[in-house]
Amino acid sequence: MAHTELDLRERRVIEDMLHAKAPVAQIARHLCRHRSSIYREIKRNRFEDTELPELDGYYGMLAEKSAKERRARRRKLVRCETLLAAVVEGLEAGWSPEQIAGRMRQEGQALRVCHETIYAYVYSKDGQAADLARRLPERRKNRRPRHARRARGTVFPPDRAIQKRPEIISTRQVFGHWEGDLMIFQKDLGPANVTSLVERKTRYAVLFRNHDRSSTMLMKRLIDLFSPLPLTARQSITFDRSFEFVAWKHLERGMGTEAWFCDPPAPWQKGSVERFNRRARRYLPRDTQLMALSNRSMMAICERLNGTTRKCLGYRTTAEAFREELRKLK
Q1: Distance separating alpha carbons of residues 244 and 224, to the nearest angstrom
Q2: How are the residues of the chain apportioned to helix, strand and coil, as percentages rounded to the nearest 5?
Q3: DSSP, res 193
Q4: Number of domains into which the chain is organized
Q5: b vs e for 159-179, b when ≥16 Cβ sit within 10 Å of the residue's Cβ?
Q6: Residue 67 above 90 pLDDT?
Q7: Nearest 5°: phi and psi at 308?
Q8: 8 A C-beta contact, residue 77 and residue 111
Q9: pLDDT tens string 114-160
Q10: Selection from 175, 194, 169 nearest residue 233 by Cα
Q11: Mean pLDDT score of the chain, rounded to an integer?
Q12: DSSP state, residue 47
């Protein structure tokens, strides 16, 4: 159902029912609205008078006026061409709305906007006509309202917690179970990043570059790379709970690979990929300009890391151990 803002009639009903001491839940049922919407409306548009506090309260007409003024502020980017040009310039440089708004505050600019205003404009008809959404680090078809975004617990359900992961995976005795992570670089170099994956038994690693932090595109790239492998060689991947992995369901639908997730503050639970990242940083420090790095150079870094002998593998290289496991599957 499309979101619709409260109108004057509804605000007058809220005023009357509040004066009649009706609870918020009853008001919400009467208006067929969620009670959080009513709570938010009362909090946002409540009238307060510092000189005459006895007049404090919710008044429908005043609430309607406040709401209209707030909507007008959202149109600041439409009214001010100079401000809009500065925002578009930031988006074209790869900055997120948060970075653009934060920079305006840091510079003490008299005319500035918050990041929510930028997002609202990007997903408005004017912003869509200019195709600004494709310049965001993570693009969506529509902007989710700030108070309607899903909690991480619903994105990463409890039955996918690492405690529910089969114990055999922890023993490293079974081939085909991976760990995944994202290597982040300096913000001023743009949104490009590197996905790193490590197979737990053989310690074999895969690196690939992403142009932004879009979860859907990351999973699509991962599926393209892993699909040629036998299913036994890509049984599961363990991630942390970063927003880059919210599209994990694509793995199951796209190639039958299960996804598991570490506890929120515990990246050490995927220790294989964390240790690999520390080794990879020797070749990919945080000030690396990824977009200037060729695909051949990225492959050379990965091959060099996989060509290292490991004591835990009987001093075989990770590449040798991985190829041996693949031969066993034939």
Answers
A1: 17
A2: 55, 10, 35
A3: E
A4: 3
A5: ebebeebeeebeeeeebbbbb
A6: no
A7: -90, 135
A8: no
A9: 888 888 888 877 778 888 888 876 656 555 555 445 454 568 889 99
A10: 175
A11: 87
A12: B
Q: List, as one string, the DSSP characters of 57-117.
A: B--HHHHHHHHHHHHHHHTHHHH-HHHHHHHHHHHHTT--HHHHHHHHHHTT-SS---HHH
CA distance 203 to 232: 16
Kindly state whether residues 90 and 68 are assigned to the same domain: no
Residue (of 180, 185, 169) closest to 293 by Cα position? 185
Over range 29-45, report the average pLDDT: 90
> Cα–Cα distance between 234 and 215 in angstroms, integer?
19
Number of neighbours of residue 142 by Cβ within 10 angstroms: 8
What DSSP string describes 242-293? -GGGTTTHHHHHHH--EEEE--TT-GGGGHHHHHHHHHHTTTS-TT--GGGS
CB-CB neighbours of 213 under 10 Å: 19
Q: Note whether residue 140 is domain-resident.
A: no
Question: 160 and 94 share a domain?
Answer: no
H helical segments located in 180-244:
215-226
Q: In what order do the strands lie in the sheet with 236-239?
A: 205-210, 193-199, 177-183, 236-239, 258-261
pLDDT digits (tens, 9 = 90+) for 250-309: 998 889 999 999 998 788 899 999 999 999 999 999 999 998 888 899 999 999 999 999
| Greater model confidence, 93 or 11 | 11
- Residue 148 inside a domain? The answer is no
Q: Which domain holds residue 107?
A: 76-135
The one-letter code for the residue type at 54 is E
Tell if the pTM clears 0.70, that is, is over it. Answer: no
Q: Is residue 299 part of a domain?
A: yes
Say what percent of the chain tops pLDDT 70: 91
